Amino acid sequence: MFAVNGFVFAIWVVHIPSVEDRVGISHATLGSLLLVLGAGAIVGMQTAGPLSDRFGSNRLVTIAGIVLSIAVMGPALSTSPMALAASLFVFGMFNGALDVSMNSQAVDVERLYERPIMSAFHALFSVGGVVGSLVGAATLAAGVRIEVSMGAAAILGIASIMVCSRFLLQASEHIAETHDAPGGKFTPRVLTLGALAFSLMLAEGVANDWSTLQVKEHLDTADGTAALAFGFFAAMMTVGRFCADRVSARFGPVAVVRYGNLIAAVGMLAVFSSEWLPLTLAGWAAFGLGLSGSIPQIFTSAGNLGSGPSATNMSRVVGMGYVGLLAGPALIGWLSHAIPLTTAMLVPLALTVVAAASAGTVRPPRTHVPQ
Q: Which Pfam families match (predicted)?
């Protein structure tokens, strides 16, 4: 499910320029429409939590995954800004619903395994994203029409979801327990985890959108060379997620968040201070490696708070994190009008230092997954 989600979303991302040309809108209008996608995602996340607690995450994962796969066709068929806005809202809403429900399902699977495996799920999302990007780039290079390529992706997504749904954990006694349990509100613990998710996903959003431009402007490199910054960041993020579960099993989730963010801080310090391309690229790589394991640990902690509906708590934390992911690039863009872009990188540097100091927030109750 994580890989399918990454694949479908990546197919949309690589076709954004084609959709922009088809609809005939400016970059500014596109930016506003992408906020509509984000708004839809937040609505979907907040709706998915209670629904998962009431009916089971397995049902919601299946429904959201199928509708998301169908909804990816919406932007491809849109011919006006209003139609594109509506299709992006629906796409974002079901992407958000799938995000929460599949993370809730992953928490349940992790409980049964009795060892940390959440980071591996998130790594598979990254792998799906890479595959989707490569497939999308190949279809664009071959001149395949956008309706055909995104339609094929939709069919593949639906088929994959239907196959995977047979192996999901079925609704069980914990559904009734969490439905009857008090909570699901923004408790102090939920707010603390949400603030941590907000900070780290903001930092991740900065890397996603600004790493390439930072290298290009700061070191005056060619576009192709500057693009290596994001490549190094994304590659080490994926590698780190495949390794983080073993680290968490041996040393605990607090160590993953604390020392991971210290590594990320050192990496961003190198990005901020370096005038040498190899060191700057190494800094972005270290930043990706350091951030890689933290969000999975936060989501696991949110799903194992021990009071209140599990998926509802998860939806609150994931939703706050997603706001950070949207806010980060915008914040850096605003700051870059007043200060150099590289100086603005002090924001993610500071956030990783604060996250390292706040790592104790993810310490799990003893009754849950042994660490």
A: MFS_1
310 and 178 in contact (C-beta within 8 Å)? yes
Q: pTM to 2 decimals?
A: 0.83
Note whether 265 and 352 are within 8 A (CB).
Answer: yes
CATH for 188-362 is 1.20.1250.20
Q: What is the pLDDT of residues 241-262, one digit of tens each?
A: 999 999 999 999 999 999 999 9
Q: 168 in helix, strand or coil?
A: coil
**Is the separation of the CB atoms in 271 and 283 below 8 Å?**
yes
27 vs 172: CA distance, rounded Å:
47
Q: Where are the domains of the chain?
A: 1-167, 188-362
Question: Quick one: pLDDT at residue 368?
Answer: 44
Cα distances from 231 to residues 154, 225, 348, in angstroms, run: 26, 10, 18
Q: Which class in CATH covers the domain with range 1-167?
A: mainly alpha
Are residues 174 and 304 in contact, defined by beta-carbon separation less than 8 angstroms? Answer: no
